[in-house]
Amino acid sequence: MKNLFLGFLLLFMLSCKQDKTVELNEFPVKQELKGFKVDKDYFLQTSKVFTLNDSVALFLSIYNKENIFNLVNLESYDLLNSFGIIGHGPGEFTNPAKIYIEPKKEAFWISDGMQQKIFRYPIDSILKRQDFIPYEIIDTRKYGVVAAYIIDNKKLSLYSGETKEFILYSCKEGMKKGIGKSHLFFPGDRILNLTKRLKTFKRHPSRELYAVSYIREDLLLIMNKKGEILHRVKGPGFIDPLEERGDYEFPVTTYTKLCVDENYIYALYNGKKGTSMNDRGEFVLNDPERIFIFTWEGKPVKELKLEYPAFSFDLDKQRNRIITYSNALDEEIVYYNYEF
Predict the structure, then answer these.
(1) What is the overall mean pLDDT for the chain?
(2) Which residues, in sequence order, are bridge partners of residue 155?
């Protein structure tokens, strides 16, 4: 009888240990941030923003056919250089997609989804030359669709995208290895796997931890390099990515971008349809207005309410600012003072 009781106790303890899901209903602290519009004499069109180093930000204008990438000084917000053309010639892009910044801040990588290649751009070189043609290139055709990714030693190390039943794939010596089992997998349906499981991820700056967020499900995972899910945060909308919708109904978007530092995960959160149609039949972007902050243990810390909707954001820790791009304003670049 004693052994039976101990067995039940052990099973209960194991189940408690494995259930690490936190239901997010509200944050202990909510803070409203005032936005400061940047007065500039250049135009950016619907841009993703990336802080490359302490002095330069990169704005990726997703609808431009010329000057796709714009380098901006983070102190004055002056335009330093523009480059990138949509085309089929040397150094031209077909579908520029994701950016990865090297930890030493010496270079960044740009993936092209149609070419299935990732190109390296040294920051010093691209600041001096508009016609720089990258010569360090990673071919990703054998990996299928590569979405978010990490480069180590100038080689593809980890990526999300076409990862079958796994959350991520690691790449060593050209071989793929699944990391973490996905809670969503549709055998034999490639399109459904790609659309319903859209996600991004970030690596901890000094530890082998990964923050993984989903674009159509309000779910944040914190995972180690073995693929073990250490913490899981669900909410606040408890959005079901499998919910059926009409043929002309746009999906709800949740986490659209992650930024991380040693202590925290910063997540731009929407919680509403990313696109809708107004009374005149025009498409309208419904950009996020909130940034959620979590610890690396998945504990909710703070909700930041932005004054203006933000299509994208990044951290300028040198100046204690959050940099955003807003589709809702003519000024487009808006920064917020924030003590990190």
Answers:
(1) 88
(2) 152
Q: What is the DSSP letter of 94?
A: S
Phi-psi region of 289 (alpha: psi -120 to 50; beta: other; left: phi over 0): alpha
| Other Cβ atoms closer than 10 A to 297 | 11
User: Sign (positive/negative) of CA torsion 220, 224, 225, 228?
Assistant: negative
DSSP state of 9: H
Query: Residue 101: which H helix or E strand, with range?
Result: strand 96-101
Residue 22 carries which side chain, given as an amino acid letter? V
Domains and CATH numbers, the chain: 21-337 (2.120.10.30)
Structure tokens belonging to residue 283: 């498409």
Name which of 126, 100, 98, 134 is nearest 114 in CA terms.
98
Which residue would you say has higher pLDDT here, 65 or 266?
A: 266
- Check: CB of residue 256 under 8 Å from CB of residue 275: no
Buried b (16+ CB within 10 A) or exposed e, 271-286: bbbbeeeeeeeeeeeb
Residue 8 has pLDDT above 80, yes or no: no
**Whole-Å CA distances, 325 to 61, 257, 269, 330, 334:** 10, 12, 14, 10, 6
- Show the tokens assigned to 172: 């060593």
Query: In angstroms, how far is CA 49 from the centroid of its own chain?
Result: 11
State the Cα torsion 318-321-322-323 to the nearest 10°: -80
- Supply 63's token pair: 């609808």
Q: What is the pLDDT of residues 219-277, one digit of tens each?
A: 999 999 999 999 999 999 888 887 776 655 788 899 999 999 999 999 999 999 888 77
CA distances from residue 82 to 61, 116, 183 in whole angstroms, order as listed? 11, 23, 41
Mean pLDDT computed over 136-140: 95
* Six-digit token string for 102: 């090297």
pTM: 0.91
